[in-house]
Design a protein that fits this description.
single chain, mainly alpha
Length: about 120
Amino acid sequence: MKKRRKRRKNYNWEAEIAKGNTDKFYNSTDFDIAREKVLERDKGKCQFFLGKWNDGIHSPNKIKIIDANTVHHIIPIKERPDLALDINNMVSLSFKAHEIIEDRHRWTWRNKKKNKPITEERW
């Protein structure tokens, strides 16, 4: 278990998320504890690439064992802030699987820069 700071105050996360403070929630100790419980429950393996979980739209091309480093909310916290800390609403995913589920994997090729020389050589 990782060493973390003590909780300084009890937050009403439903109200904070409704205000739009999702970054504050994701950086909180409460979320860290819930995240660790979910990763421990799923034995640190990506449930998407194991074939145990999919969102009904995306499915893996092939089954493989990959370590999970991300926790995904099945029902988004913006829709249901009351389920933000419910571990039954979370699933362990790898970063790649999370990008696929969130439909961000299509745009990754645009972010890669071509290896362009800093200055052109002129001889």
